[in-house]
Amino acid sequence: MLHSLTPFMLSVAALSQAPDPLGHLVAEALRNNLGFATERLVERRRAAEVSEARGLFFPSVTLESRYSEQDGTLNLGDLLNPVYARLDFPMRVDATLPLVHESRVRVTQPVFNEAIRHNYRLAGQRHAAQRHHRLAAARRLAAQVQIAYVSLAAARNAAAVYESSLALVSENERVAERLLAAGRATPDA
Question: What is the distance between the alpha carbons of residues 119 and 112, in angstroms, rounded to a whole number?
Fold first, then answer.
């Protein structure tokens, strides 16, 4: 019994390996369909969300910098003016620093944060769901293209049948008129 199924199985395998005659139409539809392009963009966004969620596991570095206005700070002139007065040097120095620059670098490493892990898992599941949604949309679009192609072929075949039968109907009409004129047929023919 196994030997009798082998040729059938080989023919099915050969048919499945044959090139798809509508493949170029399906590929063009997938390239140019705006709805499917939206599905691809949403999938890219979901992949970016997975990368962003993965990035939360790594250390983060922030740089904070600010200028602050100081009030009541030490005037450098208070230190230098007495020295200049003893040297008989007529100079008066008034030097205060009105602004102070303060910078900080902060490195944060999450040691254990269950929310980060759940967020990463959820982002991965959303990405997988969107990928399956895009694949389903691709299958629906391919099916629609194939159905449209078959419908077009059926319409062309129906038009060809009507055109070929038109000659036959007109010949039958001519023969019926001749038979009626010869008295060999009734008017209902």
Answer: 13
Which pLDDT score is estimated for 95? Answer: 76
Question: pLDDT tens digits, residue range 139-169?
Answer: 999 999 999 999 999 999 999 999 989 988 9
> Distances in Å between the alpha carbon of 46 and those of 2, 102, 134, 140?
48, 39, 12, 21
Burial 96-108 (b: 16+ CB within 10 A, else e): eeeeeeeeeeeee
24-56 as b/e, with b when 16 or more CB fall inside 10 Å? eebeebbeebeebeebeeebeebbebbeebeee
- What contacts 22, CB < 8 A, 6 or more positions away? 145, 146, 149
Burial class (CB in 10 A: 0-12, 13-18, 19+), 169: exposed
Q: What is the pTM of this model?
A: 0.59
Q: Is the torsion defined by CA of 109, 111, 114, 117 positive or negative? A: positive
Q: For the purposes of burial, counting CB atoms within 10 Å of the CB of 14, is it exposed (0-12), middle (13-18) or buried (19 or more)?
A: exposed
pLDDT band at 15 (very low <50, low <70, confident <90, very high): low
